[in-house]
Amino acid sequence: MDFLVSSLAAALRLIGTFSPDVVDAVGTSLAVSAGATVFAALFGIPLGLLVGLSDFPLKRLVVTVLNTLMAVPTVVVGLVVYGFLSRQGPLGVLGLLFTPTAIVIGGTLLAAPIVANYALASVRGADPRIVPTALTLGAGRVLAVGTLIAEIRFGILAAVIAGFGRVVSEVGVAMMLGGNIRGYTRTMTTAIALETSKGEFAFGMALGILLMMVALLVNLFLNLLQRR
Amino acid sequence: MKVMYRLDSIRKRYGSNVALDIEELTIAEGRLYTLTGANGAGKSTLLNILAFLSPPTSGEIHYAGKRVAWDPGSMEEYRRKVTLLHQSPYLFGGTVYDNVAFGLKARRIHGDARERRVDKALDDVGLQGFRDRKARELSGGEAQRVAMARALVLEPEVLLLDEPLANIDRGTAGLLETVIASLPARGTTVVLITHDPEQPGRLNGESILLEEGKVATPHPPVA
Fold it and tell me: Which of A180, B60, B168, B213 would suit a FRET pair with B193, their CA atoms being 20 to 30 Å apart?
């Protein structure tokens, strides 16, 4: 018990004194997560809206695939992207492996299905009168869809936040594609895994506390939006 | 008198169920029609077709003498002439003004013209001073009046009303009924679904009765 208490005290000291290693890991985590979330939103929101608003023969299959992609383990995503970015891979010439960009690519693939599914759920849960009302008031197809998006904007924002939550808390992609390079690609989650294995439990605990705070803030914001 | 709609052999199916089966129906300009019939008789289905929101499974519709092709490119033009008001209308988030001005913005009507028309429409339904109120915070009767103002502001050639006076208080219903009754004199064609047996008489309109998707009483041809 003393070990835990003393580690917690040391962790709080590290946070309170803005330890450069802690600050660096937090900064990298937030930066790559934000980047991945932006790209995931650019792909995922239109995809979710398109699937939700249109009828086509293989729609059920597409929805099932999107649902399945949400459950893909992060290390599998890391493995696939690693295959493409490694020196022998088709994109190896770009030299992106073990860079923040590689983590962003992996994070995008991880978050895009979540964003798409949340956007799809928002469209499905939208009031069915929105589009007919806009159409009968003279809106064209584009304005009618724009009106629908405006009406479900909180659901769309929730999709983006859920995507961010997924990326910031994962470790597999960041570890496999970033390589956990100190001061460059070390994120909160990879630092926790590495430092704890090295016996730096207090350092891992400090980052764990900060990661929990980020997750808590994200979920509080998400709950707030879902209540509106 | 000008014919607004001519329906020939219109059928609407949902799977194997035939919701609407109208051999012939003519609706003249500037007249008020009440559409009656039991639940499931096809009234709302007919209104959705007349509003160009849902194409018939088969048959032809002519609007103002022109055959409706139901191609996506031309439907916006038709929908800008016809407005449908539902029994429980959807109000968009934002203010009363945002809702009433929606159709005008879609038609790119800006500036003073838009402001004047919004104010007049709100006056017509007794909602002066409601412009900046949050639409979602209105009572049921007020929301129905906003929806009516949102339709009236467009000055449509045809106004289709799906039980617009159901579920609202007597005072609001009386006000809206007066507004509706005045529309044919302005040249607006009105088709109104009602379950109130006395409403057709009060509105001095022509009656169309639907039974199991068919027009039950022959509709008099337009002279």
Answer: B60
